[in-house]
UniProtKB/TrEMBL annotation:
BP GO terms, sorted: rRNA base methylation
Binding site for S-adenosyl-L-methionine: 257, 288, 308, 352
Coiled-coil region(s): none
Protein name per Swiss-Prot or TrEMBL: Class I SAM-dependent RNA methyltransferase
Family according to the record: Belongs to the class I-like SAM-binding methyltransferase superfamily. RNA M5U methyltransferase family.
Enzyme active site: 378 (nucleophile)
Residues annotated as signal peptide: none
Domain of life: Bacteria
InterPro entries found in the cross-reference section: NA-bd_OB-fold, SAM-dependent_MTases_sf, U5_MeTrfase_fam
């Protein structure tokens, strides 16, 4: 029997944002269902179903604001009230830290970016019979849905989509598939395109005209699936961005925190986690520094020794950091972690690892004995894994801030402060009171 229907009582929301029903033994993940609801559901795969009717709705259920929600793969939780969404994400982070072995302080601070503030998005490009579509994947499919509406993307980027579709339709270098990553820098939209065939000279002229007409300082391009550094196709003005007064020339496709509100919430939480009184000579080691989102605000409080694995980001950070208190090292921290002994004398370690977490680097953090470890995480599961090593090494959790900058997604970001009291010959070195 294809796609059998059943009635399910939903126990809770799972970490992917699906409702989880356990009444049949093995968990069934039910798309579009919320904790506490009873729904009619249709099986769509092993252990997976989609809600077809809500029989008893949760008080937190709302009408999704976007008419594309049930098709588009971009958002997963628009049917959940935003305050309830933030409280669910706060719970995910709290559970991760408890699972790691910590007592979680009461009153976790939590902030959420408003709709239409997302300033970076990776979109898919498809040529169809009626021209090119720039959009997101249909949920669970390779098909691409045109973003005729989007409640997360910042308007300066959303308004570019229609002209971008029109211009890509004219490119010979786009046969069938490609992608468009857009970043809103201080200087304006920065676009990185990929396509499945080389661009011809006329394509380059067309893209340059588009850039001029639409106020796009830079467009870069690479062959779809290629590994070469992207080629700048047109640069009508310098692509620049600034962090705490340091002006950078970021590489194309650079990592930016998803929203400006998210960036500020993260840097504020990191700075608040530093000891209140820091001597000018204090040294903070920063791991996974990117182009310096956190490094430059930090450098106003301490000397920063920054490590990053992407050579282009390192080049950008080095140039912008010249004359500031930021020392930059290129290092793959998976292959060659900073060793515990090399943190000696540091007042704090700040780390902001990728989604997979800190891997081999986490073990060195745990045995470093550095009194303050400030962990910026975009993945509660990886946080739990890494934080367990800190708990086992005697670190205590002092503060947590949850940042929801991927509104309506299941992603939860956080900044946690772990501290350790170090025994010295003169007695315990206690973190100064705030
Ligand atoms: C979440 S981003 C944070 C960047 C920066 N802290 C920011 O807020 O803009 C993670 C960073 O880790 C870097 N990274 C990923 N894997 C790495 C590795 N194995 N070694 C060093 N850096 C790595 C990425 O290039 C990226 O810049």
């Amino acid at each position: 029997m294809a796609n059998p229907s059943f009635t399910a009582r939903i126990d809770s929301l799972g970490i992917e944002g699906d409702g989880v029903s356990r009444e049949r033994g093995a968990p069934v993940h039910v798309r579009y269902a919320l904790g506490g609801e009873t729904v009619s559901a249709r099986t769509i795969g092993r252990g997976r179903a989609t809600a077809t009717e809500i029989l008893s709705p949760s008080p937190d259920r709302v009408v999704p604001p976007c008419s594309l929600f049930f098709e588009c793969g971009g958002c997963v939780l628009q049917h959940l009230d935003r305050a309830a969404l933030l409280s669910w994400k706060t719970g995910l982070v709290g559970d991760a830290l408890r699972n790691a072995g910590f007592t979680v302080p009461a009153g976790i601070k939590a902030t959420q970016s408003p709709p239409r503030t997302r300033r970076r998005m990776d979109m898919a490009v498809r040529r169809g019979p009626d021209g090119v579509i720039v959009g997101l994947h249909v949920r669970g499919s390779d098909e691409v849905i045109a973003l005729t509406e989007c409640h997360v993307l910042i308007p300066q980027l959303f308004t570019l989509i229609a002209p971008l579709q029109a211009v890509l339709t004219r490119l010979q270098g786009l046969r069938r598939i490609g992608s468009a990553s857009v970043n809103l820098l201080d200087s304006g939209p920065d676009i990185l395109l990929s396509s499945d065939a080389p661009l011809v000279p006329r394509d380059r002229t067309i893209l340059a005209e588009f850039a001029l007409t639409n106020g796009v300082p830079r467009i870069a391009w690479q062959l779809e699936g290629g590994r070469a550094v992207p080629e700048t196709i047109c640069s009508i003005a310098p692509a620049t961005h600034s962090f705490s007064g340091a002006t950078l020339s970021p590489p194309t496709g650079t990592f930016l925190q998803a929203t400006i509100e998210g960036e500020h919430a993260i840097t504020d939480a990191v700075l608040a986690a530093l000891p209140a009184r820091l001597p000018r000579s204090a040294r903070v080691v920063e791991l996974y520094a990117g182009c310096g989102t956190i490094s430059f605000p930090l450098s106003e409080r301490a000397r920063v020794i920054a490590y990053e694995g992407n050579p282009l980001s390192v080049g950008c950070l080095r140039t912008a950091g010249a004359g500031r208190r930021v020392e930059v090292h290129l290092r793959d921290l998976n292959r060659q972690p900073v060793m515990a002994r090399d943190f000696a004398g540091a007042t704090a370690i700040v780390l902001d690892p990728p989604h997979s977490g800190a891997g081999a680097q986490a073990r060195e953090l745990a045995t470093s004995g550095v009194p303050n470890i400030i962990y910026v995480s975009c993945n509660p599961t990886a946080l739990a894994q890494d934080a367990k090593l800190l708990a086992d090494a005697g670190y205590k959790l002092q503060q947590v801030t949850v940042i929801d900058q991927f509104l309506w997604s299941a992603r939860a970001e956080s900044v946690s402060l772990f501290t350790k009291t170090i025994a010295t010959r003169r007695g315990p070195l206690v973190r100064p009171p705030r």
